[in-house]
Amino acid sequence: MAQNPAVFAFDVTICGLNDLDKHASAGISHVLSLLDAGTPRPDSLGSYGTIAHELLNFDDVIDEYPGFDAPQYHHVERILAFGERLRADGGRHLLVHCHAGISRSTAAAGILMAQFNQGRETEAFLRLLDLRPHAWPNTRLVSFADQALQRDGALMQGLLAYRREMIARKPHLRDIIRNIGRGHELP
């Protein structure tokens, strides 16, 4: 799905592990993998040809929980460094994936689109509605990115605008979000 080049300098695709094979011939130049702790590079990326790839391992949680590797500030620093690499390489098409393509990958995609578009953080997160219409970006990642980029809450406001619009489009998600213990994230 193409983006307005005046706003975002690269195309973005978001998916889960099960959909990686579908995008092998899409001209992907950079891949960011956000997978559970200990999960290796997906074998299916071998069919992508020459790509710049970054693998980060942490669990999809929004707080510290025993037995889980929560996202940390240094993970977001690596996501932002990958964004710098994407820009320096003149990257054309970024694919961001996690296990399901719902939380970690959408947070990272929003962060990367906002990284070089200060003042357009809300636009970056609202773009996720078209890219992945059934997502719920990871709050912890976005919060760390807001700090790292010194955006004074602009990324979090973008995430909130996204969630308001998502709930307006799909009101039944309120119950699902509450049932998975993340009701405090509802706008």
Question: What do these coordinates show?
Answer:
The chain is an alpha/beta fold and 187 residues long. It contains six helices and four strands. The N terminus is likely disordered. α1 packs across α4, α3 runs parallel beside α5 and α4 packs antiparallel against α5. Strands 1-4-2-3 form a four-stranded parallel sheet, with helices on one face.
Helical content, roughly? Answer: 25-40%
CATH topology type: Protein-Tyrosine Phosphatase, Chain A
Number of helices: 6
Under the CATH scheme, the architecture is Alpha-Beta Complex
CATH superfamily, please?
Answer: Protein tyrosine phosphatase superfamily
**How are the strands of the largest sheet arranged?**
1-4-2-3
What's the shape? Answer: globular
Summary of the model, kept short:
This protein has six helices and four strands, in the order βββαβααααα. With about 190 residues, it is of the alpha/beta class.
For the structure shown, list the relevant keywords.
alpha/beta; single chain; 4-stranded parallel beta sheet; globular; Protein-Tyrosine Phosphatase, Chain A; 187 residues; disordered N terminus
